[in-house]
Structures are given as C-alpha cells and as structure tokens.
C-alpha cells in the first residue's frame, strides 16, 4: 500500500526516541488535535511514550521495539484521496495496537471492514455500554461516559473484529480483533471528558501490552542530558531566562548536562514583578552557579515606551527592544553556537509551527518575548514534547523550589500590559507593590495554587476618595484572578470576601497614589485574562 503524507505529521522526525527505553509505547500521529495528549496520558502511567510520524517504517518500529502502538485520530477520512495510511503489515508485527477514531478506522479497513460517514457527525459526550468483558475494559463500569468527535464510523460487522462497547448510535464504539492484539476505540480516551479514559489507556499499556510502569520523569531528564551533551560537544550554550518555570527548567537541565559551558542571559526590562530579578540571581548565580548575565535595560525600555498607550504598540516595542538587548549580550559570549529555549508542546501548537495541523491556531501576541531565528543559533528545546505539568515534575526533580515550579505564568511584556495607559517608573512601582500584595495575600490564604493566574492591573483612571479629612484623586487597581485548565478559556475566581477585603485594605493603605480597588468578574471568553 502506498504510504502518503497528505496530512503531514506534527512530529518532524522520530530521532527523539530513545530505543534503550525498556518499556516504550509509540503513538503514530495522524494529525489529530489530541495526539500529543495521548502520549502524555501514557507517560502519566509511568510508561515512556512518544509521538512519532505515522509513516515510520516497519524496520524502524521493529528497531525501537515498542511494547505497543497507538494510532491517533486525525482530520481525514480513510477513504479520502491521499488520506494518510499505514502499512497493513504493521498489524502483523505481533505488537499490540490501539487505534483511536481515525486510527481505529485504519485498522478496521485493513481487515476488510467498511468505514462510512455516520448518519450525522457525533461530537460530545455520550453514554457507552460494555457488551463484552476484556482486559482492555478492566475496572470499567457497565455504562460510562465517553467523548466522541467523528464524522465517520465503522460500518457493518467484519468477522475480524468483535464489539466490546457500543452506544445508541455506534455499534462499534470499542472493538477487538478476533485473534490478534488489536483494539479500536471510536471515542477519545485521552480527553478528560471520557470518564474512564485514563483507566482504558492504563489497561491498554499495562494489561494488554504488559508494561510495568517503572519509567520516571527522571529518566527523561537523563535522556535529555545525554542528548544535549552529545549534541553540544565543547561549544557554549546560551539560555535566555525569563524568571518563569519553563526557562528555569531548561537552564537547570543544561546546567546538569554541560555545567560551566552554559551562559544564561536575563534581561531586566523594568517590567518585572517585585523581587523577580533578585530571585533569578539567587537561583542561577548562587544555587546553580551558572555564568549569569543580568542586563539591566529598564531605562532603555522605559524611554522607548515613553508616551505609548496602545497595547499592540507597547507589545511591539517590548518585543523589538528585548531582541536587540538580548542579541547584543549574546554576541559578547564567545563560542556560543546554541540557544536553549523553553518551548513547550502547547506553544508549538499555538504558534502555528505545525501549519498542517488542525490545531494550528495562533495568537500572535503570545510570541512577544520570543527570539527570532536570525540570531543564528542552533536551537535546543528539551521541553518541546512536554506539557506544563510534566515540566513542573521535571523542575522539582531538578531541585527547583516549589515556589518557582508553581509560579503563575507571567506574560513576556510583563507589567507593560498590566499598567494601562502610559508607562512611567512611578506608575510601575505602584503596580509592582499592589501586585506583590495580591500574591502575598493569596499565598497566606492558601489560595495561590487553587488559582492559575492572579495579578494586579493599574487602570488609566483616577477616582475621588477621602483620606483623613482630605479629598484624594488617585488611581485604581483592578485585581484579576482566574481558574483555567489551558488559558484558552478561564473563569473568574469567586474569591472569599475576607481575602478581597484584606487585599483592598492593604493596597489602599500601603500603596501611595491608589485610593480604590476593584475586582474583575469577567470570564474568558468574552474577556481575555490580561487587560491589554
Ligand atoms: P489572554 O490575555 O490572551 O492570555 O487571555 C492568555 C495567557 O497568555 C498570557 N499572555 C502572554 N504571554 N506574551 C506572553 O508570553 C504575551 O504577549 C502574552 N499575552 C498574554 C497571559 O498572561 C495568560 O496566561
């Protein structure tokens, strides 16, 4: 059968895979939006799992010796011209296979089954019933909720497969090959909406593939350390630090790999939160003892931003000046051929780097603070395949503090997009102080980890107040706190009134020039998390 790449895979090359892993599961990527999520859910079972291109050769698969293969979903229909296919011999390798949605259709088709468009597209939660016992369904209740997202479905029974689960509209919601260790799921076990999805994936890797689940995040660190050492040789590597968890984890991995060959650059743009620069210094100069270059460019940023109020204009200036400052400092570092970045898998998707993927949406402004390719370095991106919580686990393993590892995200343009209106040193100080109070009070109340992002915003309005016997005419701080899974949607946090009260009292008493505090009760959408 011809192998096509009409839907080219997200994963450019399978070289990332380490064949020495004892227990390896491969996810063959057919372009499904949640393909990487499957890999991550398997890793959550302490079994190493990697996303690879769907047209990986059978020789390479044999060489990698996986315990199991998962064929992901994808946007195509198996009968489309040029739809990505698998070599049918893959099903004869003796390696257990789990086909999910499109992946199931491929398996079904490979054994002579027919795949047709369903009566209507099925999208969302549906109730699914177990019709036959099987190790894949161990521990599942007889009826469970699953998440469907498909147009096509397996049609008419084939002798090759037996149904394991069905729904009112889908007779083959879960199937198993009559004699081979090949399974198919019409629904998506990797998404949280599928109530027993984790159990199903765990059953596949442990009950069906026989994995023991002995892999740890530390194995991933070891693997990265070896890869980086081999790649870098005697060269220097530059790592841009932002103060956040991703770049800190990258720097810590690099430090573990190449020690003194690492140079870190931290640009103080004057738009940082209180104590941020000091913390970076403490961590990477005193604790990790790296060659740390702190560039204090705050005056330059402030002068370039002088009088600018338009949010997009601010972002552009901050992005440009950052690159200029970073480039100049990087040029002063001899023998550096590599640049390490904390790109995560969701960034890869969001930046549209995989323009072929259905998930390729972009929020241009999120690239602010990134570095352009023209800097001329080879990139090292050790977190490119990982999700945030995996990076956090790595951070803890590498000895970073809980405080850093669980730090709320902070945008590249920093306080620049939270200080609405003109940016002056005085207004930024006000905002910085108010923000520190918000975070401190949330920590004291034990709420910091319940909220994914919280901060203060300085509004470009003044309001009247009374203090003592006098009238005041001062600025307003808005407090924002949101709960979110992915930052694409977010709910405002129903903050206990006494915490709001303490925050308000402290800001008004302690921050000069602020006489009013308001709480932002808007969710995203239609609002965004940041105000600019
Ligand atoms: P919005 O405001 O779009 O924010 O709902 C979603 C998430 O993205 C962060 N954000 C940024 N991060 N550069 C960044 O690095 C930016 O320009 C930027 N704008 C927003 C925001 O803090 C939130 O976590």
What ligand molecules are bound, each kind once?
xanthosine-5'-monophosphate
Major sheet: order of its strands?
2-1-3-4-9-8-7-5-6
Gyration radius from CA atoms, angstroms? 26 Å
| Shape estimate | globular
Structural class: alpha/beta
Q: What is the averaged pLDDT score? A: 90
Stretches where pLDDT is under 50 for at least 5 consecutive residues are 1-16, 352-368
Strand content: 15-25%
Biggest sheet architecture: 9 strands, mixed
Helix content: 25-40%
End-to-end gap: 52 Å
Number of strands: 18
Q: Number of DSSP helices?
A: 14
Describe the structure.
With 532 residues, this protein is an alpha/beta fold. 30% of the residues lie in helices and 24% in strands. The chain is built from 14 helices and 18 strands. Strands 2-1-3-4-9-8-7-5-6 form a nine-stranded mixed sheet, with helices on both faces. Strands 12-11-10-13-14 form a five-stranded parallel sheet, with helices on both faces. Strands 15, 16, 17 and 18 form a four-stranded mixed sheet that branches. α5 (217-232) packs across α6. It starts with 23 loop residues before the first strand and ends in a 13-residue tail after the last strand. Xanthosine-5'-monophosphate (XMP) is lined by residues 315, 365-366, 368-369, 409, 411-413, 453, 487, 524, 528-530. Xanthosine-5'-monophosphate (XMP) binds at residues 315, 365-366, 368-369, 409, 411-413, 453, 487, 524, 528-530.
């Amino acid at each position: 059968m011809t192998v096509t790449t009409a839907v080219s895979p997200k994963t450019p090359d399978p070289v990332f895979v380490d064949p020495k892993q004892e227990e390896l599961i491969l996810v063959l990527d057919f372009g499904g939006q949640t393909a990487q999520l499957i890999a991550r859910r398997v890793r959550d079972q302490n079994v190493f799992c990697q996303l690879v291109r769907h047209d990986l050769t059978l020789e390479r698969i044999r060489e990698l010796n996986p315990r199991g293969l998962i064929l992901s979903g994808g946007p195509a229909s198996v009968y489309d011209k040029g739809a990505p296919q698998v070599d049918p011999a893959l099903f004869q390798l003796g390696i257990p296979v789990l086909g999910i949605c499109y992946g199931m259709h491929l398996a079904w088709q490979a054994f002579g089954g027919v795949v047709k468009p369903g009566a209507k597209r099925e999208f969302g939660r549906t109730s699914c019933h177990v019709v036959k016992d099987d190790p894949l369904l161990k521990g599942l209740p007889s009826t469970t909720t699953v998440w469907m997202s498909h147009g096509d479905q397996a049609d008419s029974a084939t002798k090759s497969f037996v149904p394991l689960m069905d729904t009112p509209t889908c007779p083959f919601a879960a199937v198993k090959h009559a004699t081979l260790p090949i399974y198919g799921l019409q629904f998506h076990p990797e998404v949280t909406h599928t109530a027993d999805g984790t159990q199903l994936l765990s059953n596949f890797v442990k009950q069906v593939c026989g994995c023991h689940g002995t892999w740890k995040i530390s194995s991933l660190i070891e693997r990265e350390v070896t890869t980086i050492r081999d790649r870098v040789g005697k060269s220097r590597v530059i790592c841009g630090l932002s103060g956040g968890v991703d770049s800190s984890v990258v720097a810590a991995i690099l430090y573990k790999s190449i020690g003194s060959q690492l140079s870190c650059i931290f640009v103080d743009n004057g738009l940082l939160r209180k104590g941020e620069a000091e913390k970076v210094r403490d961590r990477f100069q005193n604790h990790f003892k790296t060659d740390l270059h702190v560039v204090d460019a705050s005056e330059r940023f402030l002068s370039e931003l002088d009088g600018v109020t338009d949010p997009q204009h601010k972002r552009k200036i901050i992005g440009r000046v950052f690159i200029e400052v970073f480039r100049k400092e990087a040029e002063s570092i001899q023998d550096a051929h590599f640049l390490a970045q904390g790109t995560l898998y969701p960034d890869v998707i969001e930046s549209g780097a995989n323009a072929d993927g259905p998930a390729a949406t972009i929020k241009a402004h999120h690239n602010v603070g990134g570095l352009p390719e023209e800097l001329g370095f080879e990139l090292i991106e050790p977190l490119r395949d990982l999700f945030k919580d995996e990076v956090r686990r790595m951070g803890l393993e590498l000895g970073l503090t809980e405080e850093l590892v669980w730090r709320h995200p902070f945008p590249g343009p920093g306080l620049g997009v939270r200080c609405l209106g003109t940016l002056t040193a005085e207004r930024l100080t006000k905002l910085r102080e108010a923000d520190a109070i918000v975070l401190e009070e949330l920590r004291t109340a034990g709420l910091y980890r319940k909220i994914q992002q919280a901060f203060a915003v300085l509004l470009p309005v003044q309001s009247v107040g009374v203090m003592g016997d006098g009238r005041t005419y001062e600025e307003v701080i808005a407090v924002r706190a949101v709960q979110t899974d992915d930052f694409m949607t977010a709910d405002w946090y129903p903050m206990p009134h006494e915490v709001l009260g303490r925050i308000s009292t402290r800001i008004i008493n302690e921050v000069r020039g602020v006489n009013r505090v308001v709480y932002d009760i808007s969710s995203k959408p239609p609002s965004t998390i940041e105000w600019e």
